[in-house]
Design a protein that fits this description.
About 55% of the residues lie in helices and about 20% in strands. It is an alpha+beta fold and about 450 residues long. Helix 1 runs antiparallel to helix 2 and helix 8 runs parallel beside helix 9.
Length: about 450
Amino acid sequence: MNLDDLALQKIENMRKRVALLQRQSEQQKAQADIELVTAVFKEVYLALEELQLVNEDLKQQNEELSNTQQALVAQSQRYQELFEEVPDAYFVTDTKGFIQEANSAATTLLNISKSSLLGKFIGIFVIEKEIITFHLKLTHLRDRAQFSDWKMQEWEVNLRPRDKTSIMTEIKVVAIRNQYSELVGLRWLLRDISESKQTQAKLQWAEEAMRQALAKERQFSELTSRLLTITSHEFRTPLATIHSSAELLEHYRHLWNQERQQTHLRRIQTSVMHLTQLLDDVLVVSQDETGKLEFNPTPINLVEFCRDLLEELQQSDRSQHRFVFSSEYQSTKANLDAKLLRQILSNLFSNCLKYSPIGSTVKFSVITNNEQAIFQTQDFGIGIPASDIKHIFEPFHRASNTANIPGMGLGMSIVKQAVNLHGGEITVESAINAGTTFTVILPFSRNFHV
């Protein structure tokens, strides 16, 4: 009951008491009139006192109400100022997401006037590919907001302002409740984080680049160490052969016939070729790891190039294997890197000879098709175990059945790198004790006209 109702009640009570006294006065005798009048005045006096108290209470209540109203006006004005001055976009929507209020930052963010914003569904500014996700989030948010323990929700979404490119924004949403804790609306705070996202992406890229550089450096350091270790070991055998044959020739050549002298000379030549191949392999690996291995295509005659290479290999092989070469043309021109192509074919041929028994046949063919060259080598040697095939292009990897055969395990990794620089591909088919077939496909380069 408020003060107005209390005053009315007091007046009504006083009226009833006066009426009661009046009825009593009509029933009393004359000698009691004075006493009755005195009682009436006392009742009136008490009633007036009570009215005075009620009036003072009303004045105090009115002053407090006035002060409260002024405080509310000031608070509302302050809220409006803060609402407008906050640097982030601020929206008030109903529970379905339709905009009821928006500050200046919101109009700037979405590049649209406040009058055009009011009444619009906030989701119309979400980019098309994220609109379904946004609707699901809003529905989930609305359902969860029915619970009193619901807290602020945050997520990121791409918005498309009017006549502008999309921006990445961070969204924070809180519930608006009435005095009965019922959900009546939502408050949205949107912040443009596109620039910070770009900066973060650049930092992540830089960190990843640094990690890769450090990993590459560690890998190169390990590679260098392994190269030194394996190369020093591999060099010993041909150097020992050269030293031994040279020393024997120095002391005994005058006692030997021509054929025996030629045997030791060929050993020296073979060892020198082996050392040269080792050095070439090490150089290629080093250039690849340091990014200095280049691709320089030039016009070459494929058939002539392959025949010359086979002739060199036959001389170093000293006719221990039978070579079979086939080509669809006597002369075929193409734009390929001659140095890298030599690395590819010489390493494939060397493996054919190294892992095939003496007297066996090594087949080699080259064809061209659809502006690409297809090379194929085939031997009938020890083959590659199935478990090793997926690793044969890794540096220093050697198949498990090659323990007694010298080698550094670099040849196939060099082949793979050279093929990659051409933009080509290489495949392998092999079976234990049945041989191995490598197929290399290299597209012709367009850097030169032939």
